[in-house]
Amino acid sequence: MFKLDEFKQLVRDFRDVADFLVVYVAEAHSSDGWSFGNNFDISQHRSLKERLSAAQILVQNDPLCPVVVDEMSNVSAIKYAAQPERLYVLQAGKVLYKGGMGPWGYNPQEVRSVLQKIK
Predict the structure, then answer these.
(1) E strands along the chain, which residues?
(2) Which domain of life is it from (predicted)?
(3) pLDDT per residue rounded down to tens, the chain (119 residues)
């Protein structure tokens, strides 16, 4: 959420060359786990219903692209090493860019550079 505005600007600037998708995975900073003081009050998901409910917070902040939710087995998070967060650029099933793990490796400006080359 910290860099959501920067992500939204990417969507606005490159929606003509890329399809954007957010995959909501397990909560990295749950209120009943390792959390920040000024974070959203989201407990670790114990069911898909809870994960869907938590994802609604993101949807309400209008990321300008579809939001899907990872399975409770965390198959997407595991396959893409996406926890707590990570940015990817895929083209024709091939990874063009794999960002660093968030929050420190979450760098929308690197994605911007990759997408500018495609544009």
Answers:
(1) 22-24, 67-69, 88-91, 94-98
(2) Eukaryota
(3) 678 899 999 999 999 999 999 998 876 554 444 545 555 556 676 889 988 988 998 899 999 999 999 999 999 989 998 887 899 999 999 999 999 987 788 899 999 999 999 88
In sign, the C-alpha dihedral spanning 29, 34, 37, 43 is: positive
Separation of alpha carbons 103 and 119, rounded Å: 27
Phi-psi label, residue 70: left if phi above 0, alpha if psi -120 to 50, beta otherwise: beta
In the chain, the domains with their CATH numbers are 4-118 (3.40.30.10)
Torsion angle in degrees (nearest 10) through CA of 104, 19, 114, 98: 40
What are phi and psi for residue 77, nearest 5 degrees? -60, -40
